[in-house]
Design brief:
- InterPro entries: CO_DH_flav_C, CO_DH_flav_C_dom_sf, Diverse_Substr_Oxidored, FAD-bd_PCMH, FAD-bd_PCMH-like_sf, FAD-bd_PCMH_sub2, Mopterin_DH_FAD-bd.
- Keywords: FAD, Flavoprotein, Oxidoreductase.
- This is FAD binding domain-containing protein.
- The protein has 302 residues and is α+β, with helices and mostly antiparallel strands.
- It folds into three domains: 49 residues; 119 residues, 2-Layer Sandwich (Uridine Diphospho-n-acetylenolpyruvylglucosamine Reductase, domain 3); 118 residues, CO dehydrogenase flavoprotein, C-terminal domain (Enolase-like, domain 1, 2-Layer Sandwich), CATH 3.30.390.50.
- 36% of the residues lie in helices and 24% in strands.
- Strands 4-5-8-6-7 form a five-stranded antiparallel sheet.
- The structure holds flavin-adenine dinucleotide.
Length: 302
Amino acid sequence: MLTAQKIWSPTNLKEAWEIQNHIGIGEYCLVSGGTWLRTQWEANLREMSTNLISLEKIAEMQEVTEQLAFGKREIVIGAQVTLANCIESELMQTYLPSLVKACRRIAAPSIRNQATIGGNIYTAAGDTIPVFLIYEAKLRWFNGQTIETEPLEQWLITLQANQFKRDNRMLVGLTIEVEAQDDFSFFIKVGRRETFTASLVTVAGKGTVDNNGLFGSVLLAAGGGPVPARLSATELATCNRSGSTELFKSIYKSITTEFEATTDAFASAEYKKTVVANLLVSELFDRWEKNHLGGVTNVAGS
Ligand SMILES: Cc1cc2nc3c(=O)[nH]c(=O)nc-3n(C[C@H](O)[C@H](O)[C@H](O)COP(=O)(O)OP(=O)(O)OC[C@H]3O[C@@H](n4cnc5c(N)ncnc54)[C@H](O)[C@@H]3O)c2cc1C
């Protein structure tokens, strides 16, 4: 039997909300770039809804802006901003180079022209999420009345606890505070081949290293588990500690204990834990060596 497809194109959040309510939960699907949805529909992993609500005409979801809130600089990224827009954005290149790197490592240019930040986050599996976690991004949701904010980390934890059941809020975008000056930030993706491939694991980190080799404000996150997650215990074990063989060994151990990896068709949880620990420790060691006295220190002797 043929089913008529209806495509809705609201031009603002209120209108989109009204359409949602009019159709009713379970009877519609929000579409941003549609790149993730397309793979789900084509692989028969999800049925195509008869009502597709396209978000592409909602102006307030399209921009990347900079604002001062309580004296702090924030970057506000609309959910409809594409991965290609992120790569080109001067604001992102200046304040969020790791995010630009993450976007560059997602799919091919043709996909990145359509794929959005909102869609990438909402899947709870997108490769940009570890970067947003280390920047302690706050999600902006429209609940029909107002815009409410929620830390991304909190949303991911709740989502997992609720068996990935989502409510009907619309993701408007996210905000990131960028005032603090970091000495380093990084993003690394490991896939099954070099380019245009889904990730096995992703890691992101940022922080400072002073002249005495002391780590400060270290934030770490990894993807490759049920949801991407911060590695808070490892962050705690790293901050205010000087680089040494013992420290790097203990960071490695802490990561393999803390990181909850999942086994999939291509890699075991144990393998992913080892890769994540290797990536993060070697990256921290590298940054420590470069920043600490210009990179002339021998770790064994420090
Ligand atoms: C060939 C190919 C390669 C890919 N490679 C990668 C990769 O390497 N890394 C990676 O992370 N992803 C990859 N993807 C997946 C996908 O392209 C990205 O995750 C993309 O960012 C999703 O954004 P989108 O706008 O297309 O989302 P959509 O497909 O439009 O939506 C994704 C989900 O989010 C919901 N949604 C979208 N916007 C909102 C909103 N504002 N509020 C509430 N719900 C919303 C939708 O209903 C849907 O459930 C790939 C896809 C393809 C086709």
